[in-house]
Amino acid sequence: MITKISIRSFSFTTYTHLHEYHQLVIPIRGSADNYTELGDGRIGPGQCIVFPAKCEHRFVPDEQSSFLVVDMDKLPPSFKNISHPILAISPLMQSFCYYVEKQLEHPIRPELQINMCRLFMTILEEQVFMPRIDPRITKVLEIINKDMTITHSLCVMAGIACLSISQFKNLFKKEMGKTPFQYLLSIRMEKARGLLANTDTPVNIVANDVGYFDVSAFSHRFSVYFGHSPRNSRSQ
Question: pLDDT tens digits for 113-143?
């Protein structure tokens, strides 16, 4: 079903084109504005856009952005009844994208590429896609995902969304199903679990990568979140 999976980086350029295959685009870093006959909108971390085969689209990425791009000859059933091409994805899917990016930093064996595509399809088929996220919250997600080691204050995040703190908190919870700090914790923990399970990166480096500069504090939070220690996650 997947013919190609890749990580693509862009400078600020407009791309207008169509292709004979279906394509799924998930932001890793940065965002992009999209214009299609099925609907327009901006995608950022926590979202994806699907371009059906032969659907002309204009893709306008932010400078120095990168995206997971999946070319498919057939769309999974979960895409059949979508009303808009932009959808929200789960932290688990976002975490897997970070793992794919890490694997594709270097040439990999064809069999590993095939297995990675199969695993991606398994996760994709289990996704329960939600409607696209409110653009005001998308702006905040871009900042959070740009550097998850930073814990932005509610005041800063509300300012980015151009809302009062109470309005921001209510809208974020409505759109994401969790508070801003619960969301930050979820993407930190999912990325940490992906790094521990799929790379040999030392635990202290993993902790630093997701915003914890005290390894014991990271280990405690990880254990509470998943019910087992970081080292146990590595051995599973």
Answer: 888 888 888 888 887 777 778 889 988 988 8
- Between strands 39-43 and 65-72, the pairing is unpaired
What's the pLDDT tens digit per position in 41-58? 888 888 899 999 998 888
Structure tokens at 144: 């959070």
Paired tokens of 129: 């896609």
**Rounded to an integer, what distance in angstroms lies between the CA atom of residue 101 and that of residue 231?**
23
CA nearest to 105, candidates 203, 9, 209: 9
CATH of segment(s) 135-235: 1.10.10.60
The burial of 80, by beta-carbon neighbours within 10 Å (0-12 exposed, 13-18 middle, 19 or more buried), is given as exposed
Closest by CA position to 54, among listed 84, 20, 16, 4: 20
Residue 180, SS3 per DSSP: helix
Dist CA 145 CA 183 (whole Å): 10
CATH 2.60.120.10 in the chain, residue ranges: 2-131
For 206, the 3-state DSSP assignment is helix
Domain with CATH 1.10.10.60 in the chain: 135-235
State the pTM of this model. Answer: 0.69
Q: Model confidence over 184-196: pLDDT tens digits? A: 999 999 889 888 8
2-131 carries CATH number 2.60.120.10: yes
Neighbours of 29 (CB within 10 A): 18
Residue 97's region, left for phi above 0, alpha for psi from -120 to 50, else beta, is alpha
Percent pLDDT > 70 in the chain is 96
